[in-house]
Amino acid sequence: MGPLATQKSLITDPVIPSLASSKGVSHTRIVLRWPVQLGAVPIPKSADPQRRRENLEGFDFELSADEIAAISALESERLWGGDPETHEEF
Q1: Strand locations in the chain (E)
Q2: Fewer CB within 10 Å, N or C, the chain?
Q3: What does the pLDDT average to over 55-82?
Q4: Nearest CA to 35 among 6, 71, 80, 60?
Q5: Where are the alpha helices (DSSP H) in 4-64?
Q6: Residue 86 has what pLDDT?
Q7: CB atoms within 10 A of CB 24
Q8: Higher model confidence: residue 79 or residue 16?
Q9: Any domain includes 83
């Protein structure tokens, strides 16, 4: 996943705000929690102290299997067609 600020379509896709509202958390926390539950380690970055604090607070809730599936269905847009098994960001 690239910087969230450049991934506006992911954060504003109706699935993310809906889940954020139902969990009482920000869109960013939903997006950061998703890879954790899939066994990946997101590496968030921010110069803003409040955002850094929020990034660390992303572990006090869980997504259901259906919620993870709903976010994963957005994956093809997120990776711009890259296969997560072979696509490398670096």
Answers
A1: none
A2: C
A3: 76
A4: 71
A5: 8-12, 15-23, 27-37, 49-56
A6: 65
A7: 8
A8: 16
A9: no
Query: Does any domain span residue 19?
Result: yes
pLDDT digits (tens, 9 = 90+) for 25-58: 888 888 888 888 988 888 888 888 988 888 787 6
Q: Is residue 87 part of a domain?
A: no
Q: Evaluate whether residue 58 is within a structural domain.
A: yes
Distance of CA 59 to the CA centre of its chain: 12
> What is the C-alpha to C-alpha distance for residues 66 and 73, in angstroms, rounded to an integer?
11
Mean pLDDT of the chain: 77
Give the pLDDT confidence score for residue 22 in this predicted structure.
95
- The domain tally of the chain equals 1
Integer angstrom CA distances of residue 1 from 39, 46, 61, 83, 90: 14, 15, 21, 12, 11
Domain limits for position 63: 4-78
Q: How far apart are CA 48 and CA 68, in angstroms?
A: 28
> What pLDDT score does 13 carry?
79
Please, what's the largest Cα pairwise distance for the chain? 34
